[in-house]
Amino acid sequence: MKARRLLVYFVLGLALLGLIAWTMRETISLAVASRVATARLNIDGVSELPDGLHVRVCGAGSPFPDDRRLGPCTVVIAGTRLMVFDAGTGVRNLTRMGISPGRVDAIFLTHFHSDHIDGLGELLLQRWVTGGPAQAVPLYGPAGVEQVAAGLMQAYQLDQGYRVAHHGEPVLPPQGFGAQAQPFSLGDAGRVVVINEGELEVVAFSVDHSPVHPAVGYRIRYKGRTMVLSGDTKLSAAVQREAKGADLLVHEALSPRLVGLLTDAANTSGKARMAKLFTDIVDYHATPEEAADTAREAGVRYLLLNHIVPTVPPLPGLEEAFLGDAPRRFTGTLRIARDGDFLSLPAGSTAIQTSHRF
Q1: Whole-model pTM?
Q2: What is the pLDDT of residues 208-255, one digit of tens each?
Q3: What is the domain extent for residue 38?
Q4: d(CA 52, CA 227)
Q5: What is the mean pLDDT of residues 50-76?
Q6: Rounded-to-integer distance, Cα 261 and Cα 255, Å
Q7: Residues 145, 183: Cα–Cα separation, whole Å
Q8: Positions marked active-site
Q9: Same domain, 16 and 129
Q10: Given strand 106-108, what is the order of strands in its sheet?
Q11: Would you tell me how many other CB atoms lie within 10 Å of the CB of residue 212?
C-alpha cells in the first residue's frame, strides 16, 4: 500500500514538473536561445586552433541539389590567416562551422562557373556586417575576376547605400564592403606565385576545364605542410606536378557511371535536352579513379574528393559505386567530402587530424 502511494506521488510529481515546464516554456526557450546566441557571437574558430594548416569543407557539392553538400567552398586557415577558396552556396556554412565571415582575409576563385561564385555576394555582405576590416576583401582569380567583382559591386550598390543610411558609417564604413579584384596572369609557365609571405605561399596553376578558360587550381604551403586544391579539371598533369609530396590533395570527382544513370532516366522521360547536358558534363571533369591515380603518382598521403557529381545520397553501397576502383588505385587515406569535414595539419608534424563538425 505504501509503495503504491509513493508511486502515485512520484507520477503526480512528474506531471506537476511537466505542467510547470509547459507553463514556462516560453521563458525557458528564450533563456536557451539567449545562451546559444551569446555562444555563437563569441565563438572563434581560428584562434583556438594550433599553429598549422587547417582545411574546413563548407561546400563539397556541385550544381546538383544535395542535402549534405552545398556549392563549392573550402576554407583554408594558415596560422591566423583565413582564406576562402571558391564561393558557392557553401559559404552559408561558415558560421555553422564557428567561423565569422568578418575573419576572412582573402578569397580565391578557381574559375567563374556560377556554382563557384553564386555565394560570393552573400559572403561579401556578411563579411562587412559582421565586423570585417574597414576595407574591401582581396578577391584573387585569373583574368575575368575584375568583371565578376565589378558586377557584384554594381548589383549590391543600392543595398550598400540602404545599410549605410540606416546604420551609419561608423558602424558600416562604406569602403569595407565589396571586393578588390586581384587578377593574376599564369604566363607561359602556366603557374604563378600569388602570395609569398615567407612561411605562407599560395601558388595558382592552370588546369584543363575546357571550354572554361582560364581555370586554375591552388597549392597552399605553410610551415612545411602542403595542400593542393584541384579546382574543376579533367585528369591533369599540372595537378599531379603541384601535388608532388603534398600532405593533402582535395580533388574534384565525377562518376560517369552514376551520371549515366541520370542520362538514361532523362532519355526514358523524354527529356532529350537534359540528357544532352548530363552527357556533356562527363568530358571536363575527373573521375574518382583518375583522382586516385593522380594522388598515387604524386605521392600524396590523403585524398579528399570534393565537388561531388552527381549527388550521392546516404544509401548502402552508393558511395562504393561512386568511388569505383579508386580505393584499389590509391592506398593512402581516401574519403568523399561532406560539408563540415575538418582536416588539421599541425606545423612541425606529419599528422593529419580529421573530424566532422556538423
Answers
A1: 0.91
A2: 999 999 999 999 999 999 999 999 999 999 999 999 999 999 999 999
A3: 1-42
A4: 12
A5: 96
A6: 10
A7: 6
A8: 115
A9: no
A10: 179-183, 137-141, 106-108, 81-85, 73-78, 52-59, 341-346, 353-356
A11: 16
Same domain, 73 and 37: no
The DSSP code for 338 is -
Count of residues for the chain? 358
Q: Based on the domain organization, do 225 and 267 belong to the same domain? A: yes
Number of structural domains, the chain? 2
Question: Is residue 30 predicted with pLDDT exceeding 80?
Answer: no
**What CA–CA distances, in Å, run from 153 to 104, 141, 148, 181, 287?**
18, 16, 9, 11, 36
Q: 35 and 52 share a domain?
A: no
Residue 8: the pLDDT is 58
Asked if 4 and 121 sit in the same domain, the reply is no
Q: Are residues 22 and 135 in the same domain?
A: no
pLDDT band at 327, cuts 50/70/90?
very high
Q: Convert the pLDDT of each residue in 132-180 to its tens digit.
A: 888 999 999 999 999 999 999 999 999 999 999 999 999 999 999 999 9
Same domain flag for 16 and 91: no
Say yes or no: 202 and 262 in one domain. Answer: yes
Contact 100, 56 (CB under 8 A): no
316: its cell numbers: 548502402
- The CATH number of the domain holding residue 239 is 3.60.15.10
Here the cell at position 1 is 500500500
* DSSP string over 140-180: EESTTHHHHHHHHHHHTHHHHHHHHHHH-TTTS-GGGSSEE
